[in-house]
Amino acid sequence: MSSRLIGVLGLAATLSACNLAPDYHPPLVAVPATYKETGPWQPAAPSDDRPRGAWWQRFTDPTLDRLEPEIDTANPDLAATVARYDQARALAAEAEAGLDPQVGLGASLTANRQSKTRPLRGSSQPNFYGANQAAVTAGYEIDLWGKLHNEAASGTALAQASAADLASMRLSLEAELATDYFTLRGLDANARLLTDTADAYQKALDLTRTLFQGKIASSLDVSRAETQLETAKAQLSDVTARRALMEHAIASLVGQPAGGFSIPSEVRPFTLPDVPASVPSTLLERRPDIAAAERTVAAANSEIGVARAAFYPSLSLNLLAGFQSSGLNLLSLPNSFWSVGPDVSLPLFTGGRLEAEESAAYARFREASGNYRATVLAAFQEVEDNLAELHGLGEASQHEEAGVTAAQHALDVALSLYHEGASSYLEVVTAQTALLQAQQAALDFRTRRLTADVGLIRALGGGWDTTDLPSEAAATKLAANVLESGPAAQGSEK
Q1: Which band of pLDDT confidence, cut at 50, 70 and 90, is reported for residue 14?
Q2: Angle 45-46-50 (CA atoms, 0-180°, nearest 5)?
Q3: Which Gene3D superfamilies would you find in this protein's record (predicted)?
């Protein structure tokens, strides 16, 4: 018996090297050599100057530097994503456990009464008897066709995909916070502009009223001056309301109630960092959503091997050993028993179920491959979009600044002529309106350039890289953690 068992084990060890999953290669996507929208306007920079880690520090804003880390510790959406990653790691560890022997211990103490009319009951059999047992069970499924290894590989790949999803969510929240913050600061600058403008309009109105009282100006001039002032005040009220909404959005991002959160108004110059786009091929390594899509394809490839292995025999070794007795004196040698041997099963007819599962596995692989290619194409588009926007906004800002200078000169001339009585107040109003519109457009371009910089950094993957993915061992260990700090520490490892 022992020689036959050794032979079975040797054959199983030989066959366990089989793997029915197709050879895996990431789906091919055409990658351009350069970005189309980079153009000569993009400053040259070495690729190692790309944003890493706390990328928002490149904007040199102390308030933003203080707010961004709060996402890690307080944002509820990120905490939920961490929990999903923990679930994926647990499932990966569960699949990994299938490669190891399963051992259990059981015991039972029962009192029984059998029927007097039980068929084949002998006269010597008692009506009342005890049936007590304590036993150890052990089982080990030999992975003949790679099913268990493919299940573990799929679980590991899905855990890595979940880690990339976590990084993608983190980057998205960081970029959203930076975008909202710069939008808020743009509203602060607009509010300052409108406040100064309203003050200037008030002085112009006072002057017009004085001229009207001296019968130099008409009541129409006074009405026009009043209209300008009230319109500026109305715009200021609108900007104040929009700023409050943006402040509430930032409060939610950093996990604080909107009613108890505030950011003091401030107008300060911002640094527009140069963000080198490097070469397009690095985008496949820099974008966590691309990594997540690729890992999902790898998991689907392993699941094909699981589905194909279901057509073949499964072999497991089982052991049962312990003690049985009708009394409580179990642990004695005469009461011992054991059973050991292989267990083989082979599906013969399943009504097409296995064929359907195999077809579904191939379909999931094709779906994941399509999603991967779509993610890569969308990533290239986002980079090109932000590069084009930065290019256009850079040129537009230069033209608008020249427009502001011209509009300011026109207003100065109009006011001088009006003071001298050489023109009507309508020309002053026209010049005032043109100047305010040009100044607001210049502020809008500056804010949009800041948010486009944030968009480009996000499109390039922020400070993330595929080397940040957990290793296969880390992805299947419950103690592993892709975050060094943050919501993961708030309960996922308890």
Answers
A1: low
A2: 90
A3: Outer membrane efflux proteins (OEP)
